[in-house]
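SAMPLE LOG
Freezer: B-3
Tube label: C17
Construct: single chain, 447 aa
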Amino acid sequence: MEVHVHTVQMTLFRQMAQERHWTTVETFSTHFARAAQELARQTGERQLAGVNISQRTFNRWMAGELRRLPQRDTRIILEHLFQRPVAQLFAPPDTFPTAASLNTGGAFDDPLVVASQTQLLMRSGADEAVLKQVDGALQHIVDRYEREGPQRLAGETRALRGALHTVLSSQHSPGVHSELFRLTSRASGLLAYMAVNLGAKPAVAEAYCAEAETLAAHVGDTELQMWAAGTRSLSLYYQHRYAEADAAAAAGIKLSPSSGQAIRLLANGRARALARLGDRRGAERAIGRALDLSEQQPALPPGITSCISFTPYSLARTLANEITARLSLDDTDEVLSCAGQIDGLIEASDSEWSRALVGLDVATALLQRRQPEVDRAMFLGLQALRAGTTPPITSVWQRANELLGRARRWHAEPEVSDYAEELRNWRSRPEATSIVSGSGTELALQQ
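STRUCTURE (predicted):
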């Protein structure tokens, strides 16, 4: 008769569980659940709090019988609990994996995993490999931003920033040192932009902007300094502090007037703020300079660039901002002309926010014409409110309310009543509550 003997593989997981006296599933599950709830609060990913470990799974882990890496949610909770990468937890205790081995199974595909592993890997000497992965993770957040929104991505970004901060003061080669500061600046800059879109307290956006600028200045990254200045201007604009928004954008432009980053500062920063202040000449000069500078660039991104992208504005994104400035100047014909130029790109874009914002601007322009087109304006307004599947951002919410304000003189018209009702329903959506009230945003963005 053949007897099968099950041998126990000593792993770092088993060693640490024994050291902490977590050798029963009941004891281990108590600590695992506590870590899951803590991580859910930190990241805003509520599903993490409901992850459980079965007796069978725990027995396999203790025996070292890991056939594959755990699922993503389980993986990041384990890494948060033990402060070790999963690939290290289920390896022999005296083994420290390289960056390549940790990347097995897509471990670096999730920014939260990158965040939990960065400090350990930096200490292992895999600096360049880790920073390349972090750079990719930040770009992945930018690429997903207009599909998933800041509500979902703020936690990931904050985790990355926190991990980068843990190694800022360590000794590194000059090249790694510069890249580390640049990446941390980018992470802070993204959080500043998300704070604006989430309607967080102005101090939150300003703190992240200041950090991004300081880190970028430390390594002489002028373009990143300009990007942060543009985000500060954006924040001031949505606080209705238009003179300060213009000044912030102007200060950014002075750093490098011919840089591609100056296009955003001119179109999104100066032109829109000056138009709100009623400075037609200044606004038109800013628009003209933005368009001239666009022509002078060797190359610009195609289509509608992401609003949070670190790349220079595409021409279509610049024209979208000109539409908003022209609307404030009551140049309704120019609004409709610019909208016509980018209509195809807007429709082809996967940016729901861009479609909504341009649609709301055009709708408002139709109400400002000498012969207002109320029916068409309200139709476009309803389209804008119903088009999005991602939670609304501050700018969309404000623009939608401004349209209703313009339409109140026709309040008896059924189309206006329908739009007002849709806006009320939109406001009551759970995912819109934090944008409207400004609540619920500080947890995801807290430093």
